[in-house]
Amino acid sequence: MSIHIEAKQGEIADKILLPGDPLRAKFIAENFLEDAVCFNNIRGMLGYTGMYKGHRVSVMGTGMGMPSISIYARELIVDYGVKKLIRVGTAGSIDPDVHVRELVLAQAAATNSNIIRNDFPEYDFPQIADFKLLDTAYHIAQDLGMTTHVGSVLSSDVFYSNMPERNMKLGTLGVKAIEMEAAALYYLAAQHHVQALGIMTISDSLVHPEEDTTAEERQTTFTDMMTVGLETLIAD
Ligand code: HPA
């Protein structure tokens, strides 16, 4: 076991879906995987391994924010040998053309976090998705008829920003949405030469605050996003 994951070696597949919410990991295991077995309950950060269409895959919560996902993703990669990591989460749109329920594939992630700056203070080291995963996910989402945007996101340390206008300004520069994890995941993938992608459903819009979703709509779009994530994980 590692410090934050109690799985034994071999209990975690080399492909993993990473929702922020551990209960969403449980939902995916119960609704998408066959023979799912729980491998982690430390801090309630549930993780499961099971079969999806004949392929062994895992799913585990990461918690919210870059410090949290960095801990779990690093242990999954370094201690358990995970090679493909797909984050599935929500994001707030800062692009007037990106609406709630639509999908954003995070081609790149800007960040206001120090997580990368601490290591490279003199460079703007870009955090990018694995192209193969991105390309595969895009085509799967298109085939499922989902409205899909590809572009950069802002991975923010702050959910309740006191300076929302600064974040919104990034929307005028092509950044599509704000979330809180992708940049750290991409940085870890770069360090350890593994593949990572962030797939986000827009849950709220900072430019169209009146846009809303019912609980049922949210469930359907999140379910669609999980299908895109799982199909991308098992594609070759
Ligand atoms: N900001 C950051 N993360 C988010 C948001 C947001 O507005 N919406 C969903 N995740």
Give a structural overview.
Belongs to the PNP/UDP phosphorylase family. With 236 residues, the protein is an alpha/beta fold. It has a single domain, classed as Nucleoside phosphorylase domain (Rossmann fold), CATH 3.40.50. 34% of the residues lie in helices and 29% in strands. The protein is built from 7 helices and 10 strands. It has helices at residues 22-32, 66-79, 114-117, 131-143, 164-171, 182-192, 215-234; strands at residues 15-19, 34-40, 47-52, 55-60, 84-93, 103-111, 127-128, 148-155, 175-179, 195-205. A hairpin with a 2-residue loop joins strand 3 (47-52) and strand 4 (55-60). Helix 2 (66-79) runs parallel beside helix 6 (182-192). The longest helix is centred in the last third of the chain and has 20 residues, at 215-234. Hypoxanthine binds next to strand 5, strand 9 and strand 10.
Features:
236 residues, alpha/beta, 10 strands, 29% strand, binds hypoxanthine, purine-nucleoside phosphorylase activity, Nucleoside_phosphorylase_d, glycosyltransferase, Nucleoside_phosphorylase_CS, Nucleoside_phosphorylase_sf
What is the element layout, followed by pairings?
Elements: E1 15-19, H1 22-32, E2 34-40, E3 47-52, E4 55-60, H2 66-79, E5 84-93, E6 103-111, H3 114-117, E7 127-128, H4 131-143, E8 148-155, H5 164-171, E9 175-179, H6 182-192, E10 195-205, H7 215-234
Parallel strand pairs: 1-4, 1-5, 5-10, 6-8, 8-9
Antiparallel strand pairs: 2-3, 3-4, 5-9, 6-7, 6-10
Helix pairs in contact: 2-6, 4-7
The structure holds hypoxanthine.
